[in-house]
Structures are given as structure tokens and as C-alpha cells.
Amino acid sequence: MGKIIEIRWHGRGGQGSFTASKLLGEAASLHGGKYALAFPSFGPERRGAPVLAFTKIADKKIQDRSEVKQCDYIVVLDETLFNEAFLYDLKPEGRIIINTGTPEKYKHIDGNKLSLINASDLAQTVLSRPVTNTVMIGALAGATAVISLQSLLAAATNYFKGELLVKNMEAIKQAFEYSKNQEQI
Amino acid sequence: MSKKLFISGNDAVAEGVRLAKPHVIAAYPITPQTVVVERLAEMVEDKSLASEFLHVESEHSALSACMGSGALGARTFTATSSQGLLYLSECLHYASGGRFPIVMMNANRSLALPWSIYGDHRDSLSQLDCGWIQIYVEDAQESLDMAIQSFAIAEHLSVLTPVMLNLDGFALTHTYELVEIPEQKEVDAWLPPFRTPYAMDFDKPKNMGFSSQPSDNTEFKYQQHRAISDAKEIIKEIDSSFGNTFGRTYGGLVDAYLCGDAEFIIIALGSVAGTCRTVIDELRKEGRKAGLLKIRFMRPFPDEEIITITRNAKAIAVIDKDISFGYEGTVFTNVNSALSRYPNHILKLNFIAGLGGRDIPKESIREIFDKLNDGINNNSVKTVEFLNLNVETDD
After folding, report:
1. Which range marks the domain in which residue B88 is found?
2. Is residue B317 one of the residues assigned to a domain?
3. Cα–Cα distances in Å, from B221 out to B9, B73, B88, B206, B297?
4. Pairwise CA distance, residues A20 & A133, whole Å
5. 20 to 30 A Cα–Cα from B241, which one of A155, B23, B153, B328?
6. Is the pLDDT of residue B67 over 90?
7. In chain B, what residues touch A25 (CB-CB under 8 Å)?
8. Test mutation, B178, B294, B363, B387, chain A, max A CBs within 10 A
9. pLDDT digits (tens, 9 = 90+) for A40-75
10. Are residues B139 and B51 in the same domain?
11. Nearest to B278 among A1, A25, A35 (CB)
12. Residues of chain A positioned with their CB less than 8 A from the CB of B170
């Protein structure tokens, strides 16, 4: 069994974190030639309540369906859900991607473990609404190279139509470029 | 050309059912299998599926309606889960006794009380004796493929027995993965419309769903028993024929992984099989001879396969996501019964795990193999053990 990349998504019900986990899984498998599983935290779903979603990506078929414990990447769509204990859930080379408008709050945390983006702001500008899931998936791709931009955009066509598709593709692209440039600084 | 979709186990069952073109779908939506019948309702609505969709008021009525359509010789599907399965339990016996070849998907979930919506096998295993064929699948592709195969098995004129297709709640039903969707014309050719001489017919009137007397009841039950027992060979033939057309086979009644030279074998149902294989790969790298025997059909029960495959093993462990209170896990009882016919007694342990959705991590699978090793080295081990029990016990 090869290495499995494990990603955990934090958001609130209605913010689209499960959709993000699926979009990434579809991009990696259908358009990226890999194998993927995407699943929500099992249980009841409520709008506004904290929710978890997961994506597993690997070069070989993923047989292990047990819970994700140590993550390669943790993506936080809603900053109020972030807890510094998340750092202990990371694998050694792992990274947390957080949606924040106040990056100075995270200055005391090792910069190699964090990628920050003002996703709410970017979503408001590009999508005209504060739905950050596509921005955060673009940021994940830019910061970590877990998935190519091309595969993500191809998968997006299955999730959005018309003007919404155009806007979300733009959101993914802008977030990707922003996060990629942040990493190169 | 076949296409690939990134979909859930629920979606995969719905796609398989669409390709099988049932005449009638009767359903009452219960969480968390709801998505299967929701998708099918959408397909009927958008006319990509030409089925009669009966919205009934309960699971009991859903299966009753299915018996009606089955009696007419119509291809028939329903889906349920957990408490819903128990609510229709009375009709399970009616449907199998009436030999109506209904296909029903069940999302395996825990039973109340305490209330739980999470997965385990207590629902379907409690219904093992109701005369249905029971299939347990491991991933979304197998879910779709077995949805199609289920109709071929149920409707085979030597079988004419309803089939329950079991998917682990959440771990399969709500997990998304890549699934190949066969082409409609290939499915049409492989699974022609259901034709039966035993349908209600104005031109050939017959009595169906009748009463019996002590003088003939045993004979009806014997025929049911024979039909399910004889289905073993038919299930293997159907799996092999499906493989010839669609390129995927699943091994028939069981699927053995590295059992040939295995000293220690885990026997399990459903989605935990994948975690077992992952651990077995790790153990093999350490030079430990571990194997997995996945049971795909609980009825008919693959007794001969289990005896043959475990013949050279030193010890086996059965993982049960259920418990027959006051005794042991139901899968263990069945495996033990098969192996008792084999003169060379081996160590057999039962691990109760994954109840009410509890995770079964890789470390626990490794622990099971360690305990088998302890057992054959004459260390004391419990025959029935609740895995990862978080309470103090005095045993």
C-alpha cells in the first residue's frame, strides 16, 4: 500500500466543506489519475453546526476505510473553528490552511505549518457572497501541490453551471495563485 | 463506452438499479439510505428510468407492495435500513415464502436502544433466518455491480428468492469514490427482462400466497431451503458471467486474500475487509503469514469455502459487528458450525467490534493477529472478546 494523503476539512453546515472534499476527490481521481475517497464526518447534519469532511488520495486503490487520525493537510473554512491542538493532528510535513482576515493572530505558530488566506474577502469579491469552499480548495492546491489547478478546474465543471461555474473557477484560480506566491516568498 | 463517476455507495446502488430497469420501486425513506430512493425518484421524475415509483407510508407497506408486483412477474426493488428493516421483518418471511424475487438494499445501521444512527451489522444479521439471500459488499463499485447481479440471482428460476444487498452505513453509503458505470446496452444484454411462468395471469389462473397444512408445510420449507442451498453454484456462475461481460468478478460467495499459506486468518464482512488487507500487507512485510477471508454471502452460507480456505491455518479470528447477547457473534456461530465438521480443530476466536459505528483502526486488526499468535502459544485468550472495550471487567 502506497502513501495515502489525508485531508481534513473544517467548516460549518452550509459552508460547503463536504462539497470541497468531494470536489478534491473527484479532481484527483477522475481528472488526476489517482484514487480518492471523500466522506463527511458520519452522523446528523445541521446548518451552522461545526462539520468535518475528509479526503483521502493515493496512487493505489484505497482500501482502508478507518477514521483519519494524522492529517497531511487540515483546511479551516471558518476561523472560529480553529484550535491550536490541530497542530498535533498533523503528520511531520503537514500543514494547516486557514481562512483569516487577521494573519497577525497566528504569528507565534511555526510558519512552515501554516498557510493563511483571506478567503472570505476573496469570495465576497469574486463570488459576491461569503462562500469560501472553492477559494479554500484553490488555496490548498496553491500551498501544497496536492492537486493540479487543471484537475481542479476540470472537476469544478461537474459542480457548477453557467455564471456560477465561471465565478468559482475564477475564485479557485485567484486563490491558487495567491497561495502559490505566498509559498515562494 | 462506459463512464466513470465520483459518487457515493448510495448513488452507486441507485445507478445499478437504474441500469437493471425495475418495473416497480416501492419505498419509504428512512435515514441514512434515503439517498438511494431519492435518486431513483429523481430518475423516474426526469424519465431516465421508466419505473412505477410507489410512495408508501411505511417499510412494511413498501415490502408488501413489492410482493404484489413480484407476484405479477415484475422486476421489483426497495431499500431500507436498521429500524426500517425490523419494521418490515414480518414481510421478509412472506416474501421469501412466496418466492417473490425482490431485490432490497439495506444500509447496515445499529439498532435502538440506545438510539444510534451509525453503522453495524446487528440489523441484517438479526434477520438471517428469514429466507433471504444476504450479500455484503465492500466498496461502491461492488455495490453497483451487485445491485445488477442481485436481480440475476433473485430472478433465476431455480432460485426465485429475494435478495438483501447490504452496505455498511456511512462507511459505504456516504463515502464517495470513483465508480465505473456500465453501458446500458451491455446491461440489457446481460440482464434481460424478467420472465417467469409463475406470475399471476388471467389466462393461466393460479393460487398464490395460500395457506398450508401440517401435511405439506415441511415440503414448502424444504423447497425453500434447497433453492437457497442450490443458489451457491448459480451465484458463482452469475459472478463469472458478469466478469466475462463487464471485466469485474468478486469470487462468488467469498473473497480470499493471501490465505494460501496463511497461518492466521481474519474472517469478516463488508467494509472492514479493506482495513484488514492493509494490515495484512504490513504484516507480510514483517514475515508474518496473515490472510483475510471476506464472506460476501451470509445466506447461502459458504461453509465448504471456509473449510477449504482455512484448512492450513493455525488459527482464525471472526470479526462480528454484532452480538447475539448471552452467546457470541452470529458470524462466528456460523463459521464455527462449518469448521466443526472439519476434524483438525484449530483455534477460533471471536472479536465483537465496530458496534454503533465505532471505528476499527489498523492497530486493532494488528492486535487481533497478535492475539491469535498468543492463543496458539498457549497463552490465555478469551473466545469472545469485545474489542477496545472502555470499561473495567472482571473477566
Report:
1. 3-246
2. yes
3. 34, 22, 21, 20, 20
4. 6
5. B23
6. yes
7. 6, 176-177
8. B178
9. 887 666 777 899 999 999 999 999 999 899 999 999
10. yes
11. A1
12. 39, 42-43
Split into its structural domains, chain B has a count of 2
Q: Which residues of A touch B118 (CB under 8 A)?
A: 42-43
Is residue B237 located within the same domain as residue B344? no
**pLDDT by residue (tens digit) across B179-188?**
999 999 999 9
Same domain, B225 and B261: no
- In a domain, residue B395? The reply is no
Same domain? B234 vs B258: no
Judge whether A33 is closer than 8 Å to chain B, CB to CB.
Answer: no
- Quick one: B27 and B110 in the same domain? yes
B176 → closest Cβ in A1, A25, A69 = A25
Count of structural domains within chain A: 1
Residues B117 and B192 both lie in one domain: yes
pLDDT digits (tens, 9 = 90+) for A112-148: 999 999 999 999 999 999 999 999 999 999 999 899 9
**B19 lies in the same domain as B53:** yes
pTM, rounded to two decimals: 0.96
CATH code assigned at B49: 3.40.50.970
The residue from B230, B246, B262 where one domain ends is B246
Per DSSP, the three-state class of A58 is strand
C-alpha cell at A132: 469560501
Domain holding A43, by residue range, is: 5-184
SS3 string of chain B? CCEEEEEEHHHHHHHHHHHHCCCEEEECCCCCCHHHHHHHHHHHHCCCCCCEEEECCCHHHHHHHHHHHHHCCCCEEEEEEHHHHHHCHHHHHHHHHCCCCCEEEEEECCCCCCCCCCCCCHHHHCCCCCCCEEEECCCHHHHHHHHHHHHHHHHCCCCCCCEEEEEECCCCCCCEEEEEECCHHHHHHHCCCCCCCCCCCCCCCCCCCCCCCCCCHHHHHHHHHHHHHHHHHHHHHHHHHHHHHHCCCCCCCEEEECCCCCCEEEEECCCHHHHHHHHHHHHHHCCCCEEEEEECEEECCCHHHHHHHCCCCCEEEEEECCCCCCCCCHHHHHHHHHHCCCCCCCEEEEEECCHHHCCCCHHHHHHHHHHHHHHHCCCCCCCEEECCCCCCCCC
Entry field: residues in chain B: 395
**pLDDT the model gives residue B148:** 98
B114 with B191, same domain?
Answer: yes
| Listed residues B218, B246, B274: the one ending a domain | B246
In a domain, B301, yes or no: yes
Residue B394 lies in a domain: no
Chain A: residue whose CA lies nearest to B116: A43
CATH number at residue A107: 3.40.920.10
Contact A93, A72 (CB under 8 A): yes
Which pLDDT score is estimated for B302?
Answer: 98
